[in-house]
Amino acid sequence: MTSPTDTTAHSHEELALLVEPSAMSDRERLVKTVLRSRELSIFIVLILVIIGATAKSPSFLFSASGWRDLLLTPSMLILLAVGQTVVIITRNVDLSVGSVLGVTAYLTGRLFIDQPGIPVIAVFAVAVLAGAALGLVNGLLVGFGKVPALVITLGTLYIYRGILLTWAGSSLVSASQMPAGFLGLGTRQILTIPVLFLLAAVVVVAAGYFLQTARTGRELYAVGSDPDAAVLYGLPVRRRVIGAFVLSGALAGLAGVVYAARYGTVSSDAGTGIELQAVAAAVIGGVAIFGGSGTVWGAAIGAVLLITINRALPMVGISDFWQQALVGALIIAAIVLDRVLSARQARKLIEARDEV
Amino acid sequence: MTAGSDQAVLMLSDVSKSFGTVVALRSGALEARAGSIHALVGENGAGKSTLVKIVAGVYRRDSGTFLLNGVPVDFGSTAESKAAGVAVIYQEPTLFPDLSVTENIFMGRQILRRGRRIDNAAMYAEADRLFRGLGVHIDPRRLALGLSIADQQIIEIAKAISLDAKVLIMDEPTAALSGVEVERLFTVARQLRDQGRAIVFISHRFDEVFSLCDTVTVMRDGACVDTRAIGETTVPEIVNRMVGREVQDLFPKQATEVGEVVLEVENLNATGTFHDVSFTVRRGEIVGLAGLVGAGRSEIARAVFGVDRYDSGSIRMKGAGIPPLNPRAAIKAGMAFIPEDRRKQGLVTEASVAENVASVIRRNLTTAGLITRARENRAAGPWASRLEVKTNALDMAAKTMSGGNQQKVVIAKWLASEPDLLIIDEPTRGIDVGTKAEVHRLLSELAGQGMAILMISSELPEVLGMADRVLVVCEGRLTAEMSRAEATPERVMHAATASQEVAR
């Protein structure tokens, strides 16, 4: 037998360009990435919705309150969507954020009532820490329990809400019990931009920067992309998952304070059901529900889109039922689009390989 | 011919490993020297993979010596072996599909710039340098998703180099590669050898072993049989040592009368998996489907049974066409399919033996749409006892049984439907020797009673011992068909490894 695979003499050129090298310049690549990104496409949808609603009723955008509400209303959901995104990226889900938000919103009110004169910044800190602690409980249960996060956080959703019901009973925290300076946060604007929106924007930028440029951030993606491979790589999988839940809890805690400042009234059902909106915002924003891909930018735009659609539809005269159905259709469309695109890509690659 | 230094970088001797009662490795041995490529050959199940996993830190050995650079080691995790400079490139690498190839190489130890931020530019440059050094063209920025197996292996190799691994173990890396890709891999491997790394190369293809390696170790039945310089041995000699026993004794095969055609497959095609597959199976005949792991045998079987889709071709049972993608129609037409992964696909492990056995014939057991346990037990009883399934009661949950007994329950399940054709994928994988013989006896008996059997097996002795006719699959094509008399280990192996590029 002659050795047919003796290739030492082969030149590199002959060694098959199995994958074409990239010939694009950095700027071309950047433009292409942005153009093809999911974030851009849902941003365009958002702009279209705003244009549509404004055409129907110009005050939707071109009035002081219209502009303010456009940015202010989604602020709370943006915070939750960022936390949810980080958790979903690790191939988990956090359904307890609505209850965490309820607990911390009520906690915020109680702090102002029970500790008169407490600085606002301290209230923020306590609420964020409380949220982080509740998130830590989720993380520990998921990390050590070997039970899917869906089940664990569904359980803590009820437990945290139960704690709040026991604690608050039928009592309310009303606007008159909170200092005016704090409530002012809900309406204050800097250069026409609401302060709470600025807060959410800072969180989005910080979280996005962290996920892109920190080792820990990239490891979150790795864990969600293939948990078994992550173990083989020697990554601290459990610690990363727990960390994601702590972050999600802390941001839900922050959202609780925002809730109190924005609405002024906190009852024991604050934030009920908002966890599903947070998941929906992430999914619409292109965060893969099975982990490993997606950005907080997308989730934040998704949150704004979700809220804006809900506000715009009544103006166009669409009934409540159809509003809900439309949001549902949007979620399903987002997931179907993902599936179709990835299946088509995989098939293309296999066929291309077959022809080599 | 022997290259490299005298000091063995990696040295294992007398290593053993058991899983419960199954002995996977009796006396494994392996040496790898710097600047040398060492081949490890042996049949499926000879213990090569177990040996590799011990070196990689996936398993811990039960006994024996394991030296790295002359120092005894005992790896408890893959991270430990990696830190010690051992890298394993698996047949199917595990990468993060959603991340770029560069991130896959550097995950967990990314290059950092000021403020502990990841320095993407530096990582892309380093990845590019690694790929250039390997002589391959891969865009460092592309996602790992959709990379061919060959390219995934290159990524793993690049990772090993960036970790400065001194020992590289390639576990059947060429099994799923095309000819061009194999050449590229070999160029890379030679280059790594010349850099003074020690390489262990596991392969079934002898032409590859002879063109690439300088030393060869043969394993059989969990033990190292022989280690030689490649210049001092020949292909027939290696095959002899690999097989090394009389297959006839182990597989008492009844003579059967071959009847009319039961299954007729014509020009079956599925993009990317198999091409132009045509064959027949007759009553009373065991047809062995041989070939390397990943050649497309299971995929063909799954397509015939209607589980997987195919693009063109036809399947007929006893002359009548079978619609694609419809396992229920296939069962109705008299097919039975016992998949390779019993726990996942063949058995409801939480259910009782009786429920499992009765599951395919439920419709015949119902009264007004309802099933009673008594009826199930009545129907399942004879089959289980015939197979000597050792469970105390039919009510026992299937998951508590041994692998051998589980396999028998799966067989019983399908036999209860009295099929004309039985397709069985790796009938004895993971089963102890005693039960193996029982499964073989059973298959032979069934054929004797006139059942047509299509048996997929990676164990050469099993194919040669059991099959009346052997079909060999290589890279998705049937490359040979031979009668029982014609089939020898050499001929089957040759056909299974004869890719078109080699034939040139």
What would you note in describing this structure?
The complex is a heterodimer of chains A (356) and B (504). Chain A is mainly α and 356 residues long. Chain A has helices at residues 26-36, 38-56, 64-72, 75-89, 97-114, 120-145, 149-168, 180-184, 195-213, 215-225, 227-232, 237-263, 274-284, 296-316, 320-354; strands at 189-190, 193-194. Chain A is globular, with a radius of gyration of 24 Å. Chain B is of the alpha/beta class and 504 residues long. Chain B folds into three domains: 8-95 and 147-244, 3-Layer(aba) Sandwich (Rossmann fold); 248-334 and 419-503, 3-Layer(aba) Sandwich (Rossmann fold), CATH 3.40.50.300; 346-418, no CATH class. Chain B is built from 20 helices and 22 strands. In chain B, the strands form five sheets. In chain B, strands 6-9-10-3-11-12 form a six-stranded mixed β-sheet, with helices on both faces. In chain B, strands 18-19-20-15-21-22 form a six-stranded mixed β-sheet, with helices on both faces. In chain B, a hairpin with a 2-residue loop joins β4 (63-68) and β5 (71-72). Mean pLDDT of chain B is 81; it is low at 1-5 and 500-504. The chains are: A mainly alpha (356), B alpha/beta (504). Chains A and B meet through α10, α11 and α15 of A and α2, β8, α6 and α7 of B.
